Amino acid sequence: MYALLFSEPVLDRDVIRVGTREGIFSSPLIRACARGDQQAIRGLLTGFWPFVQAFERAIDQRVGHLPLRPLVERFGQSRVKEFFGEAREAVREMKDEEGSHALLWISGAEELGINLSSGDYPIIGSVEELIKASTSTDPVEFFSWLAGVEYLAEELSAYLCHAPAFTNAFPSRRWIWGEAHNAHEHDGPSHLEIDEDLARAYHPSHDPAVVAATLAANIGRCIQLFDIAASEIFTETTPQREMA
């Protein structure tokens, strides 16, 4: 089981959650989905699918390839040996779960007659930016980016899974991808806590204020790009509607 390297978080997670929630609540695309708008729901599922798929692959590429030297210099050889076994297992678990979550995204789309494997859905510019950022070779950026995605997934799921008009749009009356992100069934630290812990461990500074500023900037950019992408998807999929 992964043991966090730092006993206290470097970020105020409640503040980040509030900011993430505000962006989701103000998004025309997400609000339309919450109202049960079929075009908007289809836009959500097809527009963000390339990122959901790429995110799984990005985590897969990280398994077994975490850099060693920065951690040895900071925590010492013996602690790092133990740490690496835990960290690699934690990242592997994330990969396995994100893989299953990607399948849940596909399943939700299939309920609405959407075949995501057809490859007929173009990748819009801001989604492409999300994908590029998720493949960063910088472990600080990569893990803080993963944390940003966790914030988004949790807040998006909490909102839409409690919107009856949205869940009723599915024949099963459930959005199973969202339910998976609402469950929080983890032994030990959550993925969000592990992501922030790893980003902090790889940061060259030992000053919590400096580390917090870096992580907050990366997470903020992730959330901002999601908001931009949601707006672009709304415009592309509902071109004749007034943004409400």
TrEMBL record:
This is Thiaminase-2/PQQC domain-containing protein. It comes from the Bacteria. It comes from Acetobacter oeni.
